Amino acid sequence: MNKEQKQSVIENIMTRRSIRNFTGQSIIPDDLHTILAAGMSGPSCADVRDWSFIIVTNKEMLGKMADANGRYADPLRNAAMGILVCGDLQRAFKGAEDYWIIDCSIAAQNMILCAHSLGIGSVWLGTWPQMERVKEQAKLFKLPEHIIPHSVLAFGYPAEKEQRNVKDFDDSRIHMEQW
Amino acid sequence: MNKEQKQSVIENIMTRRSIRNFTGQSIIPDDLHTILAAGMSGPSCADVRDWSFIIVTNKEMLGKMADANGRYADPLRNAAMGILVCGDLQRAFKGAEDYWIIDCSIAAQNMILCAHSLGIGSVWLGTWPQMERVKEQAKLFKLPEHIIPHSVLAFGYPAEKEQRNVKDFDDSRIHMEQW
């Protein structure tokens, strides 16, 4: 990549912020496809790709997803789209199935970063490991037993002023060569 | 972002591939700083930022990290740098501490994507949830009890031909409006 291309990538990572207020504008199918392709492009344990994505645009269903995800999930109610990221235990790496949690996290972060580059804001609404949320989402979507809700992502065009500040660099978290 | 900038971000996400063979070239401090800043820019549960990073460039120590991480960790032995991503249970979200697993995954993926844009290859070597690896890394680095090894990332300049193929888009993982 040339210097400008690198800068675009790094700026996109650094300027991503949680967006909780969205305009009514919907997300075009091409952009949704790009976001999903980004989600599928991350590494996964032994390349098992142990995730599935439920895309919701129906307003009533978005409200139900918010209800199922407890406090702080209200951004879903005005989102253009919610994605329920799910792990798939039938595909998960045998012997260390819990890698599904990491694999779904990678997919979700890729989608969020891709959306940000497209001008689409998002907020990550935690589901797993809060098991009452996991259970409620599974019930809402009548999921098979091997499909486990991981996270809800709310997407839409930002109706709030973008924060362009960069998060603090915290030297205290860096340990050189040893703890 | 303009069209070209968007394309840079999306291309960077789509073309990241695990790199396991590295040249001897070391990573300059500026690039390391950028990679770490990217790691710190992701969302975390309630913004607790419950991670720490141990950066290792010493060859002997890289060998020991590889030994501690079991099979498939050999890329560390010729890497310019290894990063042990750790969760910090003292900072983790109270009441649902296991969000640290997701928060560390986000940080790691951000670092990998940032490195890729800088021409630096990487491979993600799973540690958690394989508890023998977690234990061995904790022992090697004499970690306090609240610091939990999550993943090892090996970084370096690629000594293998870059694969520019894009991962399959798998329609079977997409569920519209319902499961």
Notable features of this structure?
35% helix, 18% strand, 179 residues, homodimer, alpha+beta, four-stranded antiparallel sheet
For this structure, the quaternary state is: homodimer
The span between the termini of chain A is 34 Å
- Biggest interface and residues each: A-B, 71 and 70 residues
Secondary-structure-derived class of chain A: alpha+beta
Instruction: Note the run of SSEs of chain A as H and E.
Output: HHEHEHEHEE
Biggest sheet: strand arrangement of chain A: 1-2-4-3
Low-confidence stretches of chain A: none
Rg of chain A: 17 Å
Number of helices, counting only DSSP H or I runs of 4 residues or more of chain A? 5
Shape, principal axes of CA atoms of chain A:
globular
**SS elements, strand count of chain A:** 5
Main sheet properties of chain A: 4 strands, antiparallel
Strand content of chain A: 15-25%
Mean pLDDT of chain A: 96
The amount of helix of chain A comes to 25-40%
Q: What is this structure, in a nutshell?
A:
The structure is a homodimer of 179-residue chains. With 179 residues, the first copy, chain A, is of the alpha+beta class.
